[in-house]
Amino acid sequence: MEQQRLKSRAEIPDFNKWRLEDIFTDNSQWEEEFGFIEKLAEEGKKYLGHLADNVETLIECFEWMDNLSLRIEEVYAYARMRRDEDNRNANYQGLTDRAGALAVKVNSAASFIVPELLAIPEEILKEYRAKSAKMELYKQALDEILRKKEHVLSSREEKLLAEVGELAEAPGVIFSMANNADLKFPNITDESGNSVELTKGNFIQFMESQNQSVRKAAFKNLYRTYEKQRNTWAATLNSSIKSDVFFARARKYPSALEASLDDDRVPLKVYDSLIDTVHEFLPHMHRYVKLRKKALKLDELHMYDIYVPIVPETTMKITYEEAKKMVSEGLKPLGHEYLDILEEGFKNHWIDVYENEGKTSGAYSWGTYQTHPYVLLNHQDTLDSMFTLAHEMGHSLHTYLSNRKQPHLYAGYKIFVAEVASTLNESLIMEHLLNKTKDEKILAYLINHYLEQFRGTIFRQTMFAEFEKKTHKVVEEGGALTADNFSELYRDLNAAYYGEEVVLDPEIALEWARIPHFYNAFYVYKYATGFSAAIAFSRAILEQGEPAVARYLEFLSSGSSDYPIELLRKAGVDMETPVPVRNALQVFAELIDRLEKLIG
């Protein structure tokens, strides 16, 4: 039998790699910038205790802080993306560690600014704003600081928290290194009888196999590997949760959840309403699971049967080149400006395409203000990988437009709105495919794939969000979180979300151990809210055309120039009501109806 293996980094063609030289031409240039930032950080001492002296000193300090922030972002992004190319590379492990330590040093150097600003009487700040037109640039930033006044500590305490920051990142760093660099999975036998190394990158591909024994082998072997370190994963995640709770309490928030939401000025009711609204629609989720069991003609539907397309004759193989064409075609409703930038990203080495040994799993979009966005992929020639490309390029164009239209201070957008741009791309492409497809089997396949996006983005991410809420509450109430506690909570949530039609294989209780997002708590709910907002935008764009496109592109160009809830409201979507989530889930229910008619 043929033995397949992952390629080394050197075996990947250059035209399928991103070009990080656009940030720094080589490591020596990175070292020069590193040294410059160390010196620049020291300059903050001359502003310490003097922000109330006059408006000129205040503006000069703001400019220093913005310059420092811009430069450390570039140094850290370069080092981390180099490490992500191959996590086993000790040189880039070292650069990333140094960049992280420098970022903590930068945060510490600037930690006096907020406490000093809050100590300046509001009438003085008002006088400063009247004296200098330059202060207008800082209006939103100042408003953001002043609204959090009760959660800001003394200058000495803020400095201490900033210096503790590196320790707080330890659980996530340890998880990432163990999960990406050290974890090795056994070989399994694929559909053709070949012995293939199981990886995190090809796991979902195996889970979509029409051969149940292949799905089962991938599922069992993946979790068997995680099971060996279950107590270590639990200790690491527990430490991350305790860190969240510590920082929330230090800043006088009622809970870690409310501390996290306050970063985006998102009311607690948005989070709770999402969970409640999804629970309203769980009967439809259970109906979908039942339809899946029937379509696959299975006596028992297992957790490893959840991803396989339920229309087996139409499994689609999509090369990366084909994926790019499909993305461009599906995004035509967004107009020439959008498509021109998309093409620039395809041609100019924004994207790192294929999996290689040691490469970070999954996909992301990142980048720097002075260059352009970057996308990490692990492309697998599947429909799902095509949608991943569309998703990450949605993030990248959001970044590109905000960087182009906003000053650095406001170019970075909040995570709450980040998933709108990525998911809208997927939604528009799916609507395009559904409209042009005549073959009923392919149509059923696409509807099933769309249903899977709803399941994976609204239902699954909300289940994750509920898991995060419950686990943090355990710690906040003084309870313990062991591997058994985590697994029991996780199993119960799966039972509620998937219903009685699915066999809850014991391995699924351990899935929490492999989810990297849990180390960035209260992030995943934004996938669900973002997906709901994206459905609203996509419907408006397809129904209204140019006016809706103009509003949407204005939204993409807004960065963080206003609070995320307000930016969405200006563009026509009000996330403070359950309406967008409810409407999106109504589309889910209608898609089930359509699929039932097609497959009988």
UniProtKB/TrEMBL annotation:
Biological process according to GO: peptide metabolic process; proteolysis
Example GO molecular function: metal ion binding
Ranges for domain Peptidase M3A/M3B catalytic: 206-585
InterPro entries membership: OligopepF_N_dom (IPR013647), OligoPept_F_C (IPR042088), Pept_M3A_M3B (IPR045090), Pept_M3A_M3B_dom (IPR001567), Peptidase_M3B (IPR004438)
Cofactor (UniProt): Zn(2+)
Keyword Metal-binding annotated: yes
Signal peptide per UniProt: none
SUPFAM superfamilies: Metalloproteases ('zincins'), catalytic domain
E.C. numbers: 3.4.24.-
Cofactor note: Binds 1 zinc ion.
Enzyme class: hydrolase
The UniProt record lists the keyword Heme: no
UniProt keywords, alphabetically: Hydrolase, Metal-binding, Metalloprotease, Protease, Zinc
Domain (Oligopeptidase F N-terminal) ranges: 116-185
Family under the similarity heading: Belongs to the peptidase M3B family.
PANTHER family, A to Z: PROTEASE M3 THIMET OLIGOPEPTIDASE-RELATED, SACCHAROLYSIN
Function: Has oligopeptidase activity and degrades a variety of small bioactive peptides.
Name recorded for this polypeptide: Oligopeptidase F
Organism field: Desulfosporosinus orientis (strain ATCC 19365 / DSM 765 / NCIMB 8382 / VKM B-1628 / Singapore I) (Desulfotomaculum orientis)
